[in-house]
Amino acid sequence: MRIGGINQTEMIARYQNTINASAPKAERAAAIHDSVELSEGAQQYAALVKQARAQLDQADAAEESRVQDIAARIHAGDYQVFAGAVADSILTGMNEGEQA
Question: What is the phi/psi pair of residue 33, to 5°?
Fold first, then answer.
């Protein structure tokens, strides 16, 4: 006794043709419903990420404003750098780096 092979590709195509012929496209699309539910932890995480992004946007805007102000003062010739303040900042940064 010999059992012939089943052409799976052909069978799948027949099934799809049957489904496509039986229901109009609009009905098939309307019958599909996907949904996602986030756990409470995921919702809290998403809220924290949203809050962090908002804070970064605010910080970016404040920094951009500060940079524009400094650039305008440089172009006007009103911006002065105090060597002592720069040296203090460098030394403070070096001291903090050693403590870390």
Answer: -135, 115
Considering the domain boundaries, does residue 53 fall inside one?
Answer: yes
Average the pLDDT over 1-5 and give the result: 57
Q: Cα(57)–Cα(38) distance, rounded to whole angstroms?
A: 26
- Please indicate, yes or no, if residue 3 is contained in any of the structural domains: no
d(CA 93, CA 87): 10
72 in any annotated domain: yes
Binning pLDDT at 50, 70 and 90, where does residue 93 land? confident
Gyration radius of the chain's alpha carbons: 33
Angstrom CA distances, 95 to 61, 73, 86, stand at 30, 31, 14
Task: Write down the residue that tokens 């003062």 correspond to.
Answer: 73
Per the structure, the count of domains in the chain is: 1
Rounded Cα–Cα distance for residues 40 and 18 (Å)? 42
To the question of pTM greater than 0.70 for the whole model, the response is no
